[in-house]
Amino acid sequence: MEMLSKKATCKSHGQDSSYFLGWQEYEKNPFNEDRNPLGIIQMGLAENQLSFDLLESWLARNPDATMFGSNGGSIFKELALFQDYHGLQTFKTELVEFMAEIRRNKVRFDPQKLVLTAGATSANETLMFCLAEPGEAFLIPTPYYPGFDRDLKWRTGVKIVPIHCSSLNGFRITKAALDEAYDEALKLNLRVKGVFITNPSNPLGTTMNQDEFNHVISFAVSKNIHIVSDEIYAGTVFDSSKFTSIIEAIMDRNLEKTDIWSRIHVVSSLSKDLGLPGFRIGMIYSNNETLIAAATKMSSFGLVSSQTQYLLSKLLGDKKFTRHYIQENQRRLKKRQQVLVSGLQSYGIPCLKSNAGLFCWVDMRNLLSSNAFEAEMELWKKILYEVGLNISPGSSCHCTEPGWFRVCFANMSQETLNLSIHRLQAFVTSNGDGNYQNQKLSTRISRRNSLVVS
Amino acid sequence: MEFSLKNEQQQLLSKMATNDGHGENSPYFDGWKAYDSDPYHPTRNPNGVIQMGLAENQLCFDLIEEWVLNNPEASICTAEGANKFMEVAIYQDYHGLPEFRNAVARFMEKVRGDRVKFDPNRIVMSGGATGAHETLAFCLADPEDAFLVPTPYYPGFDRDLRWRTGMQLLPIVCRSSNDFKVTKESMEAAYQKAQEANIRVKGFLLNNPSNPLGTVLDRETLIDIVTFINDKNIHLICDEIYSATVFSQPEFISISEIIEHDVQCNRDLIHLVYSLSKDLGFPGFRVGILYSYNDAVVSCARKMSSFGLVSTQTQHLIASMLSDEAFMDKIISTSSERLAARHGLFTRGLAQVGIGTLKSSAGLYFWMDLRRLLRESTFEAEMELWRIIIHEVKLNVSPGLSFHCSEPGWFRVCFANMDDESVRVALRRIHKFVLVQGKATEPTTPKSRCGSSKLQLSLSFRRLDERVMGSHMMSPHSPMASPLVRAT
């Protein structure tokens, strides 16, 4: 008898992907400015480390965020005992206001329709458990976050059918791509339960435009399926006016009083906006009461620590702080992104034009030895082992075209970013354009030269 | 209209989202509702329902709060701890902070009297014990596979192990005639029954100390269980969430001790579940622990822990607290003393009116025998009696059937989630109820076996009063009668 379950022995956890393998290599030889200056620089981790000083100074000004107020009253016991899966009401109230603020208050959220979960990882899985039977499918635009293969499929048995997006139109979702994906699902005998979008997109760093909303919404209406919108990067938009939440998009089209309203579900988290991934604060928002009731019960398997809920209720309750934080954080992200984009641009590596996210979607097609995923893997390994940068290959994000890479820029210091650009520059210069094989000799010479120059 | 709307919802959402697998449609939630709508408060609502259905440990918060005040660096929000804020806040590695794992492993060793060692690399985080159980079910069983579990058992297992996993739980029926002990015969019988029904048994689920019984398993039974699972080549999940709530003899013996010292077995079959929700009273912090002796299970469970990691803010606090070994020693012993006092207070108070309880040495509750108050020996009668206790006596206790007990008339009563005044009020109400029922009997000693017969004498109120006031009915092993016992 097989001792462990099928789920335990299959590979659906997705951790054999290059996305995670790169991390492992990084762990073995991590860059450190002083202790290991030749180590691998982590550019595969979409973290926001740019604005911790703002959080830290808030903490210094607000000792009440501890569980002992300056008046001596302790709420430690209350918090330690609080395990109600409805969550701390004050926290949820502040959280929905923060979410609204990020969306320029074009959308107002009702805290009663919010479910707290242990990170967006848990929120996404919970939604799949609630919306689909094992073997049913969700359509997802490519390229997409590699973690979805684990989060959406592993324990739920749900399938993902890709909506292929192409660089020809900046990877935008088209009606044709949606229809093609749906037909593909039918061919595979899979019942489609919904479309899963990430907006702003990971790995593209772009926000959905009105055409895309039109396509996705009409499609979901006509097929009578769900739309899940993972808006985890909403707070990383460089300019708030350019981000439209799915809820706003539905309202703009006057569809609140129609069926689709109860088939819209938003996922978010404080891991990217506030840079607090360790605290495991995720959420599901939906107008579907039955869904909220079920997801709330399921959240028992991954509640948010009451201690953390309390801290965040204080932090988010300081409106002056949150307004300032949102703006300043966006400004810093934009500036960082520009450093990376212009740095890469200066030696002929274009990035997809983006306006959000903690990463750029970099076009390295002209560095490939051939237009094939094997060549992409070759290039990725070179960049990992020779250049010493862990970046994420497009294939790990299910991109249909080889040569694209996601490069993160917000999880390191300015100096480290400059160094990584410099390293890449040296590599690119030595490799040149076109077929690497033919230029092997000359590149070795020019690499030597470029190193001397720099 | 309503039906088609519901039907439509059911089509729109998965079966899992619309079925009863969460277990909350049980009639026993009426007790909670009664409490929620009319909660007892000593001054604001003295006639409200007293919550005795929640297994919480509130007895040592004074010590814990003092520790937190004196150790500001344990919080990343204080001036002393803020320098750790960023590194803690960005740490999302599912291995968990090393200091957290080390401190938890050490604490678990301490609770077991340092009789075993735990490897911090086998510690896997989970969303409470709730998450740990579900994760183990996902790792060890395919849908339709079954685990055997001795009755009575914690109702949450039905949800935790079955709801989203598709697993089944099959009872190993235990009876009051031998104090609900697990026997070789009952284990075999349950296993055979499964075989006959063509159900694949993948494992055995044990809760030690037991919820709801409050008993600890003796060495012989533990050896029998390990031998059983080893022979059948099935897994053993041992939930030791109440391991530090032991307050008297007999002592707690962990499954880890049995496999290290008492019996050879395939260690790949052994998995522990733990949490800080009961021992320390921190259910809000969601500190669940899964510990497995099986490398593949550790690896898989660790990946699955992404769905329910412990907040690093909390990991940091817990690491600081648990590594203060002198403090933890103090907590363990003080908690034990206070639990003993509370337990004794209640069980002696009940004994005064001839209400027996299963002899127990652990847990935050006791298993109360109200069989002789039943109109007849049926679960309908148990439900009737329970409704009276909720709505007239105004105590939310948990009826045995909700724990899958095979015999009607047993109730779990929690005692560690309230203050002393509430205890007195609760006891007064029980005494009054029993007297009114005309069912008060000769006081029983706390050690009486549940099978013993009782004299059916009706006592005058004054006589009962004298007995209670002058109570010295202690067995040699029970702790000193609390000076707080007053039944008037």
Structure description:
The complex is a heterodimer of chains A (454) and B (488). Chain A has helices spanning 6-9, 18-28, 52-61, 76-81, 89-102, 119-131, 148-153, 175-187, 210-223, 246-252, 289-298, 306-317, 319-345, 373-387, 414-431, 440-453, and strands spanning 41-42, 114-117, 137-141, 159-163, 192-198, 226-230, 264-269, 282-286, 359-363, 389-390, 392-393, 404-408. By secondary structure, chain A is α/β, with parallel strands linked by helices. Chain A folds into 2 domains: 6-52 and 328-428, Aspartate Aminotransferase, domain 1; 67-321, Aspartate Aminotransferase, domain 2 (3-Layer(aba) Sandwich). In chain A, the strands form 3 sheets. Chain A has a 7-stranded mixed beta sheet with strand order 2-8-7-6-5-3-4, with helices on both faces. Chain A has a 3-stranded antiparallel beta sheet with strand order 9-12-11. With 488 residues, chain B is of the alpha/beta class. Chain B has a 7-stranded mixed beta sheet, sandwiched between helices. Chain B has a 4-stranded antiparallel beta sheet with strand order 9-10-13-12. In chain B, α7 crosses α8 (156-162), α10 crosses α11 (255-262) and α14 runs parallel beside α16 (420-436). The radius of gyration of chain B is 23 Å and the shape is globular. The N and C termini of chain B lie far apart (56 Å). The model of chain B is unreliable at 445-488 (pLDDT under 50). At the A-B interface, α1, α3, α4, α6 and α11 of A face α2, α4, α5, α7 and α12 of B.
